[in-house]
Amino acid sequence: MKFKDLEQYILKRQALNAALTLFSWDQDTEAPEESVEQTTTYAGILSHELFEVITDKKVKQLLLELESQNLSLEQKTIIKKWLKDIEKFEKIPVQKYQSHQELLMKAQRIWQKAKKENDYELFLPYLKQIVEEEKEFAKYRRNNEHYLYDVLLDDYEPGFQSQQLDQFFNMLKKEIIPLLQKIQNSTHIIDKTYNERYYDIDKQKTFNHWIAEYVGFDFNKGLMKESVHPFTTNFHNKDVRITTHYYPHNLESALFSTIHESGHALYEMNIADHITMTPIGVGASMGFHESQSRFYENIIGRSPLFWKPIYSKLQRTFEPLLDDVTFQHFIDGINKVQTNLIRTEADELTYSLHIMVRYEIEKKMFEEDIDYHQLPTLWNKLYKEYLGVTPSFDSEGILQDIHWAGGAFGYFPSYAIGSAIGAQIYAYMKKTTDIEEWILNGDFKKIKNYLRDNFHQYGAIYNTNELLQKVTGEPFNPQYYIDYLKEKYTQIYHLSH
Ligand code: ZN
């Protein structure tokens, strides 16, 4: 048996996966409204085919035989990943898996209704049942994880356990909440009303297209469309697609989501040719992917260095709307801290606090015997404690995200981990490269090459801790993120140290 024998199955798996991704891209961007039901039938068939390839007995035999052979690191990682995928399916009884999928479909419809009607009790029995079944599955899949919740975390952030996350969130609690309170009590008021003026959509399109290219998005290997919620998707490293959403009375929304998605896209475009069309031709983890988008969006995109050479271009494009907004006013505006109830509208500083609320509740659901009727109260209490705001309705409280209705537990922490990884990489780059000069000179090719050579090219060959260790000499360390936030916001809000 040779690795070559596995290659036809790898390609088939990738092709089916790409076809499914293409359908889903199409549904979110161009497909006509009435196409959903029938197209879903096609997608269902492809999805079944994909399952058959992944769990094919011949493939498993081949993988097991190859496992002990002398192979390259890439080949070994592909085999390991594939066997892990098989194990996941094998350990859960098929019947239970299927009925769980049906439960999730139904729960998402009920969640939509519950959110619309502000009726948590309607969603409660579904949430409870989903968690019970997810717990059962985690028990089947458990290897040596101490907590059940750790089994789920591993799906999104391999190598991370709740012990490490507890430390991370405790640091945020200790350092960021007092910082936020200082800002809330600060006399430095930032005016941001300029952002709500009328910004012509066509002009926004031209500028956003330009800025994507400016930060390095390659339109020969990618394209940009519009969708309700911005996202990135790809089929391999030479076809990477992003979307954005334009609002006439919100200049920033499209601008920063374009930079954010460009960050995701650059990651995918930079994955090495020899692994792009394999199961490890993806980001190292959810969190690592998010670190790249936030690196471009927040660390670079909201810095004065970034706007120094291009702010006048923005002013000219929307003349005369920004004529009375000075450079410093604009920088303050794009970094204004606005505590609110909705995670997706959160600013850079408070974003992780929104995640902390969800993390704590998820852990309770998985590790304690809790009363589900009490969850909205707990949610509101934590929001008050961490962010200083209280939801008036469950729709803007516990019912705001779709994740739990879709069975995605252990997913939320990835967002916060991503922000922290981004800050860690930036601190290291400041020490060892001329990153600040590169940003100021608009020299994005250098940034792209650096990230490609050190992180992106490897896809999922290494996990987050391994990658950070390999490049920066230490594993995940959230201290850089805390330092970054403290330094940045102390300056913006003129706080004393
Ligand atoms: Zn993202």
Describe the protein.
The protein has helices at 3-29, 36-55, 57-67, 73-91, 94-117, 120-141, 148-156, 162-184, 201-214, 251-269, 273-276, 286-300, 304-307, 311-317, 327-334, 351-367, 375-387, 413-432, 435-440, 444-454, 464-472, 479-492; strands at residues 222-226, 232-236, 239-244. With 497 residues, the chain is mainly alpha-helical. The radius of gyration is 23 Å and the shape is globular. It starts with a helix and ends in a 5-residue tail after the last helix. A 3-stranded mixed sheet has the order 1-3-2, with helices on both faces. Zinc ion binds next to helix 10 and helix 12.
SSE topology:
Blueprint: H1 3-29, H2 36-55, H3 57-67, H4 73-91, H5 94-117, H6 120-141, H7 148-156, H8 162-184, H9 201-214, E1 222-226, E2 232-236, E3 239-244, H10 251-269, H11 273-276, H12 286-300, H13 304-307, H14 311-317, H15 327-334, H16 351-367, H17 375-387, H18 413-432, H19 435-440, H20 444-454, H21 464-472, H22 479-492
Parallel strand pairs: 1-3
Antiparallel strand pairs: 2-3
The structure holds zinc ion.
Residues 260, 264, 290, 293 line the site of zinc ion (ZN).
